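Subject: Probable peptidoglycan glycosyltransferase FtsW structure
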Amino acid sequence: MEMKKKFAEKLKYFDYALFIPFLILAFIGVVMVYSASSINLSYLTGSTMQYFIRQLIYVVMGIGITILFAQLNPRWWRSTGLLIGGWFFFMGLLIIAKFFNSAINGANGWINLKIISIQPSEFCKLYLVMFLANLFSNYNKNGGNILIRKLKMGKIFVKEWLLIAMVLTMLVMILLAPDMGGFAISFAIVIVMYLAYVNLKYWKSLLIIVSGIATIGVGAYFLQFTTFLDGTKIGYMIQRFRAVFEPFKYENSIGKQLVNSLYAISNGGILGRGIGESIQKRGYLPEPYTDFIISITAEELGAIGATVVICLLAWVILRIYLIGIRSKSTYAMFFCYGVGTFFAVETFFNIGGAIGFLPITGVTLPFISYGGSSMIVLTIALGMVMNISANQKRGTEVAVFGE
């Protein structure tokens, strides 16, 4: 009877407004991964189920992870030992990926474990959210002065410059992979959480973010006309911007992926060609089940299907931010802002690359694209936010996470 009562209480405080959209997105993702990958797999191996089975396993794991982290006692998230040890662990993974593993698509961002490959930069995004949420909430506890010389973390005092150096070193290692998409998302997390810390008005924070994006865009536009960096890694990134500004001019070279993505979206029209009927997935778009899954979704399910996916993702992101806004705990607020930014920027980068608004960065579409590392990290983050939401409903948020 006692167990039944506890189970009923957990169900009462469970955040279905986050969990159900996640389930729908994950289901759509499994279907679209199968549709986007099956044809090319049949050409290569004669089997069509490989990525479907793997993605289904990732989704089942993700559901379990979400429920688990939504129920766990969250106090350990702020453990000083976990945060400091986590930095050494993830830095070690980034170093192994960079120097001891072969490059994939020009980047040393993966560790091949034979059974599964993991991408350390994916886990670093969530780690940075945890680290910075703890850091900024402790700053507030110590009077809110960003210039204090030492900061109390748990039972010890750590010099401020060391904590800042830890964050910057991790960002540099992600950049050196090079993983531009992972770096941009991680950097955005740092910026948004810092803006939340300094407690600017929303319109001022938005103005700073928009101004920063506009400055980068203008710089990229003029940078595309330079030629002295051609042949370097920076030159390769500049070429991606050229493809954004004039894709059809380079449709047989650097603009080929974007042009085919635009063809896929155009082919879908309003209602789509139907599941399995995509043309562009048949060798025209590389890895259509990851970077360009929104393009295949638009081609097969039409503008309506793609809009449903985007609206569900927007709902999840806005819900996470809303939980942060309602929070009475500074730590929980920072954490939700960080996770919301993580999800939002990743979605923006994937869709922006597919429609030609941004360079193609290889960033996955949350819960839709194929990938184990991405699914695990996203569902851990989602479960942790649902944990915060449950404690808000119980009225125990401050007692659990601190003020």
